[in-house]
Design brief:
This protein is an alpha+beta fold. It has 6 helices and 9 strands, in the order ααβββαβαβαβββαβ.
Amino acid sequence: MKRLSVLVVLISSLLSILVSCNGDKKRHNPEQTKTLDEIGGYQLGEVAEDFNLKNVDGSMVSLASVAAEKGYIVTFTCNECPFSKLYEDRLIALHNKYASQGYAVVAINSNSPENVKEGYEAMQSRAEEKGFPFPYLVDEGQKVYPKFGAVRTPHVFLLDKELKVQYIGAIDDSAKSPEEVSVKYVENAIEALENGKKPNPNLTKAIGCPIKASKT
């Protein structure tokens, strides 16, 4: 009888651990990115519309005004999202590697300024703190990100020189750590274009925080 009681306790403990682990997996499993049709943004191969947004230095920046002979690494990001912060140094590295090859990094913050930590002044502080060598633009009125179909931060759209969308998704396959990256999606996409090929894959799941829409 005593052995049976001990066995029941052990089984109950194991069940509790399993339930807890499954719950943690559910909590930490990122949402699946919606399909392009569900998002309603640019499709692969479509030509993106140029924009004219305010940079952290006060100037107005459009894709046409950026010196990029071959393409643009348009990245929707923000100040506060932990995923965005994990990728800031990697965005800087992309700029340092590809700006001289004709590909410009252009970062856009589309989060609602109702959160002062995502407002323009906070963007200026973040850009100065990190020493961003690329434009960091504010999507005033949140008009640009729906056109692209951006849903998370960071979310990358690789455009060629004709502004055709060639790749959509994540920067690489390890948000947690650059040391654990095994596939560099954006770099591989650029290399494919450089070799006259289509990126493969040309669509991956963007991992990050949802872009926060204004409540007004």
